Amino acid sequence: MLSFQQARQTILDHVTPLGVERVGLLDASERIVAEDIIAPWSLPVWDNSAMDGFAVRHDDCSNDGTLTISGYIPAGGYSNDPVQPGTAVRIMTGAPIPPGADTVVPFEETSEKGDQLTIRGSVTVGDHIRVKGEDITDGENILTAGSLLRPAEIGLLATFNKVIVPVYRRPRVAILATGDELIEPGTPPNNHQIVNCNSFAVAAALKEIGAEPILLGIARDNRESHLQKIKEGLKADALITSAGVSAGDRDLVRDILEELDVKSVFWKIDIKPGRPTAFAMYGDKPVFSLPGNPVSTMITFEEFVKPALLKMMGHRRVFHPTVRAILKDDVKKKSGRTQFMRVFVTMQNGQYLASTSGDQNTGILKTMIRANGLAILPAAPDHIGSGAQVDVQLIGGDYV
Ligand SMILES: Nc1nc2c(c(=O)[nH]1)N[C@H]1C(S)=C(S)[C@@H](COP(=O)(O)OP(=O)(O)OC[C@H]3O[C@@H](n4cnc5c(N)ncnc54)[C@H](O)[C@@H]3O)O[C@H]1N2
Ligand code: MOO
């Protein structure tokens, strides 16, 4: 049986980034740029003032004399007239430095009387001038393909007039719940029926990473229903099924996938929860079959599906940030399996602390709700004492 790391790597080895599409600037937010972006001009575009004040010739500032105010350049204005010796030009932040001037003196360091200006204190040549190209030079590679477009990158693209941006396509991901016991949310449950929560938890997780969920509904525990729904799901870029993958008499998912020529890559991983997870490929489309217990579905999505989809969207970083934390509880676990423990992480005196968020049975949803981290307990020991250091993936929720 594959270990946690082997299974995750195997999945990542099977998926590749989807194609590229060109979208409007704001639609590119939080997506991955698919080509290098080259600066078409320098930034700043020209030498400009960093302060409201006076553009002067530094040589004129060395004696205690006065200068004559000879002009005014607001932001949005410019002047091609050279600043003559003995004169100063009133200039606003962002306005281009006029020829001849090499220094800006802020208003606070001057006093004015009519058109006469006195500079107080010492002035260094070049003060308060933002020099052309000091930020970015013409032809510089400003964003390499594969970069995440956060607000700062979107601003940078806007600066350079890049209103159409090449980004990796977002996967359309079909989600199929399976089981005769299931009804859809909004339907009053009869005896022995339970409401399909997995499809919605998975759809929300997909939206969080910018993938497009397609809800296929529920496949009933018979061959025809599975065939019809799975066929539909295979039209998407990826398919996620929940339940029907363990050893039950009615666990049909893997058989039907095989019947539809979906090639099994592996079944079962040495982890808890999530052992019966199956992974298969339909051409170049991944098919994830997640165990039905809601907590197992959510954790296997986080550990296996999310990194694969992020890779398909062109992301270079596909894993949750992991921190070392001190365990606050004694933990008994199954020896030989990597175990994901739902924890609540806090920070005290510069150190992360992780305490169990409650009952770790996979039937217990509440513990998932309370968790903001998953501690990854290594396979070997069957007991980890409080005070031990463990790796914890931060999975969001309340900030620590
Ligand atoms: N003999 C064995 N039995 C089981 C094994 C095993 O290895 N041998 N593995 C156990 C483990 S671990 C898990 S996890 C479950 C997973 O089984 P399935 O993926 O086949 O899921 P089901 O049995 O159909 O359902 C499990 C549980 O989850 C509920 N469920 C299913 N779908 C949904 C949904 N969409 N929304 C909410 N809840 C859902 C379902 O009613 C069951 O209670 O198998 C163990 N058994
Ligand atoms: O592996 Mo099951 O997913 O423990 O609940």
From TrEMBL:
Q: Report the CDD domains cross-referenced here.
A: MoeA
Gene3D superfamilies for this protein:
MoaB/Mog-like domain (3.40.980.10), MoeA, C-terminal, domain IV (2.40.340.10), Molybdopterin biosynthesis moea protein, domain 2 (3.90.105.10), Molybdopterin biosynthesis moea protein, domain 3 (2.170.190.11)
Signal peptide residues are: none
The UniProt record lists the MoaB/Mog domain at 174-311
Q: In which pathway does it act?
A: Cofactor biosynthesis; molybdopterin biosynthesis
Q: Which GO terms describe its cellular component?
A: cytosol
Enzyme class at the top of the EC tree:
transferase
Function noted in UniProt = Catalyzes the insertion of molybdate into adenylated molybdopterin with the concomitant release of AMP.
Protein name per Swiss-Prot or TrEMBL = Molybdopterin molybdenumtransferase
